[in-house]
Amino acid sequence: MAEDSFLRFPDGFVWGTATASYQIEGAWNEGGRGPSVWDTFAHTPGKICDGTTGDVAVDHYHRYREDVDLMAEMGLNAYRFSIAWPRVIPEGTGAVNAAGLDFYDRLVDALLARNITPYATLFHWDLPQALQDAGGWANRGICQQFADYTAVVVERLGDRIAHWITHNEPAVHSFLGHFMGVHAPGLTDPMATFQTIHHLLLSHGLAACAIRATARTRPDVGLTLSLAPVHPADDTDEDREAARRFDGVFNRMFLDPVYKASYPDDVRQVLEVIMPKPEPGDMETISTPLDFLGVNYYSRHVMKYTPDIFPLQAEEVYPKGNEYSGMWEIYTPGVYELLARLKADYNPSRILITENGIPVPDGKDFDGKVRDFRRIRYVRDNLAEVHRAIEEDVPVQGYFHWTLTDNFEWAYGCTMRFGLVHIDFATLERTMKESGRWLAQVIRDNGLDPGASGLPFFPR
Ligand code: FCB
Q1: Using CA atoms, how far apart are residues 159 and 35, in angstroms rounded to an integer?
Q2: Residue 268 falls inside a structural domain
Q3: What is the whole-number distance in angstroms between the Cα of residue 401 and the centre of ligand 1?
Q4: Residue 327 lies in a domain
Q5: 139 secondary structure, DSSP code
Q6: Tens digits of per-residue pLDDT, 81-93?
Q7: Distance (Å) of CA 140 to CA 135, 137, 170
């Protein structure tokens, strides 16, 4: 190991993987679980590209011990997972399902027995269908219902879980689920989209207070946002303005309320009619101080001024000649740029990278190994950029890889493999990929040498 090029992470750095309940658990109608919007959506023909559903997913509900063993094998010291609201309160409000809480209880104990610290996300998009039938996130009453559900979970698990994430990616849930209709609940309603944004943020603030009021020891409370640098396609005023508008809607629309207790003025100017109309006290609740900001980083956006696209007059373009994965451009400098910007504009007290990963169409080679070198290269380059940000005093304290095993990737079904562990979807057999072994070494060393990764080659 060449010491001079070795990138050492700070002592106590958190190394984890992240998952989401609907993408892995399966057991959709077992153990008293109620239906969620994702069951309804995935069961609707044509919504999932390969016709699969999360009914079984990777059967984590029954195989969680094996999955915890895999995490231990990699030496991970943390695990971010989400709790399915419909498993805990099948109708969304009212009767609590003891069997649902028991499942998470067993999972948490299995993690702690392996010295893996649990980080629980309270909402990763699988809303109880009964609440959607009552208006879903467009209905203001849901905010208190989310806080009540949160208190039930923290009451039961708060003695062993210290780290809580209220919501996962409010932007993606709002825009893909309520505006573009490509995620559950499948709406294409601009008004409902912006009500959803406000109610997700308000419910985050209420839930943060509920966690702090319920937990017996001091909890660590965060919110996970999907964030990305937004670049102009060309260096023109028009493209720069298009990029600024897109940045307003997808980044600042979520960061400003949390850190500055207001929605961005430039977004209000463009979207006046549908902007949230906060009630007195809402913005104070939303800006309740966070213990940490969760950052999900995958790629950047490149925007071109396009006058006939209403109302943002901005169109996403994909620069020619760059490298792409099955879903996004591979743009690893973006995570440094993003982290530096967060420090400059919002100065968060602590940051955890709560997701970062890449779909790779990998499979087993003749000898049973899964040589997903493209994933290794992606993670290596992202970690080098995260390290650079840490050197510049951005307070990043952990990295959670998306994800542990290949799983149900929402509207892409089982066609996008994001795991460090390969899944044979016919047998659900788990096989550690080369990326899993590589990350295990990074964790053992608490760092990496980007030039000497231990692999034979990295085609660029
Ligand atoms: C994020 C989601 C996560 C997964 C990854 C690939 O937007 O939070 O559930 O789908 O993308």
Answers
A1: 28
A2: yes
A3: 11
A4: yes
A5: S
A6: 999 999 999 999 9
A7: 9, 7, 15
Our answer to whether residue 355 is catalytic in this structure is: yes
Domain that includes residue 19, residue range:
3-448
E-assigned strand segments in 77-207: 78-82, 117-123, 163-168
Question: What is the mean pLDDT of the segment spanning 220-228?
Answer: 98
State the closest ligand 1 atom to the C-alpha of 23, by its place in the atom list counted from 1. Answer: 9
Rounded Cα distance, 13 and 89, in Å: 35
451 confidence band (pLDDT: 50, 70, 90): confident
Residue 331 Cα to ligand 1 midpoint, Å, equals 17
Residues 165-211: pLDDT tens digits? 999 999 999 999 999 999 999 999 999 999 999 999 999 999 999 99
Is the confidence at residue 152, as pLDDT, over 80? Answer: yes
What is the average per-residue pLDDT within 438-443? 98
226 CB near ligand 1 (under 6 Å):
yes
> What average pLDDT score do residues 18-26 get?
99
* Cβ of 410 less than 6 Å from ligand 1: yes
Round to whole Å and give the CA distance between 351 and 386: 11
119-138 pLDDT per residue, tens: 999 999 999 999 999 999 99
How many folded domains does the chain comprise? 1
Report the alpha-carbon distance of residue 118 to residue 279 in Å, rounded. Answer: 35
CB distance 19 to ligand 1 below 6 Å: no
Which pLDDT band, with edges at 50, 70 and 90, does 458 fall under? Answer: very low
Amino acid at 60: H
Residue 259: pLDDT over 60 = yes
Has residue 454 been placed in a domain?
Answer: no
Instruction: Give the closest residue (by CA) to ligand 1 atom 5.
Output: 402
What is the atom index within ligand 1 of the atom nearest the CA of 359? 6
* Distance between Cα 3 and ligand 1 center (Å): 35
The arithmetic mean of pLDDT across residues 102-106, rounded, is: 98
Residue-level pLDDT at 4? 78
Question: Does residue 86 fall inside a structural domain?
Answer: yes
Which of 25, 355, 385, 434 is an active site residue? 355
Ligand 1 pocket test, pick from 402, 414, 415, 416 with the greatest ligand atom count within 8 Å of Cβ, gives 402
Atom in ligand 1 nearest the alpha carbon of residue 410: 10
Q: Which CATH number belongs to the domain containing residue 42 in this structure?
A: 3.20.20.80
Specify the amino acid at residue 412: Y
Stretch 390-407: mean pLDDT = 99
Q: Whose CA is nearest to atom 10 of ligand 1?
A: 409
301 Cα: distance to centroid of ligand 1 (angstroms): 16
Distance separating alpha carbons of residues 220 and 243, to the nearest angstrom: 34
Ligand 1 centroid–CA 221 distance in Å is: 20
Question: Given the CA of residue 224, which atom of ligand 1 is nearest to it?
Answer: 8
- Phi, psi angles (nearest 5°) of residue 295: -115, 120
